[in-house]
Amino acid sequence: MSGLKPKLLLFSHICSPVFVTGAEKLLLLFARELIHRFHCVLVVPQEGIISERARELGIKVTVLELPLAISLYTAAPTIAEEIKGLIKHPSWSKLHSLLADERPSYVFVNTSVHPLPAIAAKSLGIPTIWAMMETIMDTPSRGASADFIASHSDVVIGISHTTLQPFQGKQEMVKTFMLPPYLDRDQLLPGSWHYHRARLREQLGWGEVHLVAGYIGATIYPNKGLEPFIQAMLPIAAADARARFLVVGNPVDEVYYQKCQTLVQMSGYADRFVFHPFVEQIQQVFPALDVVVVPSLVSEGFGMTALEGMAFGKGVVAFASGGLTEILTVTGNEPFLVHTGDVAGLSASVNLLLSNQELLNGVGERNALAAQNIFGVEAFRARLEELMALLPFPFDVQGSLLRGSGPTVYLVEQGKRRPFVSEKAFLQRGYRFEDVALVPESVLERFPPGSPMYEIRNSRSAKRKRRRKSITRIRKNRRTALRGRRLIRGRSKGRKAHRRRR
C-alpha cells in the first residue's frame, strides 16, 4: 500500500448483463465517490453492465461467483444452517485466496444476502463495511439475521433509517451509520431535458396539452405495485381526456405483467397507456412526465425513483412504504404520501397535481431544490467524511499519503505523520496527488506529528557540496598527517641528540 490510497474491495451480489437493479445502481453510485478516497476493486459474480461501467471509472474488476444467503433478507429460521452450507462451497477457498492476493485495507459488502465476503474478511482481521440497501423482512427471526450481520461487520451502513431499524439496540456489537444515496444534477444533463421531453412525447403521439403520470422501475414484479398504479389511473383517464400514462420497466414476472396489460386493455382506455422498456439514461424519460408515481407495496430501503422524480422537478406521489416515507417527509412532500395499498387515495393525490398546473409547478420547483440540498452530491460527501471517521485503521497504513481539510499532504512513516513542506518536496519523491487519500481531521490527529519532508536540493549542487566536503576532508587529513610526521621527526632528533650527549 506504500504511496497509495487504502485499498477497498467492493463485493456486489449481482452483475446483470441485461439491466441494472437498484442495489447495483446504488453500489456504482457510491463507487463514484469512494474512488476519491480508496483504491477500489469491484468483485462481481459475472461480467455485466456495472462491471463495464466500473472499468470506465478506472476501477479494477475481478470475477468471482459466490453463493448467496437469501435467508438473511427474508429472516428465515434456517439462517444458521444456510450459512454453514455456504462455507462448504468450493468458492470459499477462492475467496480467501483473493483476499490474500489483494490484501485490502477494507471490505465493502453490498446487500444483506451476501455474507461470505464479510465472514472471510472478519476471519482475516480485515475491517468490514456491510451496506444495507434493503429492509430485512420483519419476521420472528429478524433479530437473528441482524445479529449475524452485526457480528461480522465493523460498520453497518443503511441507505435510510428504515434499513437500519433492525440494528437498533445493537450498538454494542457494531457501529451503524446512515448514508443515503445522492444525485448529481450535472450528470443528468439538465440542458437536454427540454429536448427529451419534446422528443419522447412526439414519439408517443402526445403534446404539451397532455397531462402525463408515470410509473418507472428497472424491474417490474407484484411488490412494485404496477397493478395499483393502473387501478388508480383509470378514474383519472375517465375524468380527463388529456390524461396519459407511461409505464417504464422490464418485467420479471411475465404472468403478472400480462395481467396488468390485460387490465388496461379491458378498461376501454388502452389508447391512454404506453408500456415502454426500461431506459438506462433516465434523462430521456423523466422529463416527459408531469407526475411520478411510486406505488411500492413493500417496505422500500430508500426509493430512488422518487428522488429522481424530484430531481427532475416533478410532482411525486407514493405509498408510505419504508424509505419512501422518509424521502417524501424530509422534502416537504408528506401531503403526497398515501397509505400503502390505498388505491383511491393514490388516485386522488395524482389527480390533485394533474388538475392544478400552478400547484404542480410549485411542487416541482420545490422538489428540485430539496433534492439538490438534501440529497445532492455535496451532502453525500459531507456524510462520507463522517463515515470515514468511524472506520477502524487498516492494519498497514505505513507509507500512506493522507490529507485532511487543509492543503498539507502527510506521509505516514513509523506511526507518525510527516508533512511535505511544499508541492515540490512531494513531487521530487515520485508521489502523485491522485494517490492521496482524503481523511477527516480526526483521523490525522491519531498520528503524532513527525519531522517535515523538505525539498531535495538540486543534484548538481548536491554533488558540488559533496565534492567540497571531500576536498576539505582530504586537506584536513593531509594536514593531520603532516603534523604527525613533523612531530615524529622532532622526537627522533631529540632522542639522537640525547644519545650523543651520553
UniProtKB/TrEMBL annotation:
Gene3D superfamilies per the UniProt record, alphabetical: Glycogen Phosphorylase B
Region of interest (Disordered), ranges: 482-502
Pfam families in the cross-refs: Glyco_trans_1_4
Presence of keyword Glycosyltransferase: yes
Gene Ontology MF terms in the entry: glycosyltransferase activity
Family per similarity comment: Belongs to the glycosyltransferase group 1 family. Glycosyltransferase 4 subfamily.
Organism per entry: Cohnella luojiensis
Protein name, per record: Glycosyltransferase
UniProt KW Glycosyltransferase keyword: yes
Keywords: Glycosyltransferase, Transferase
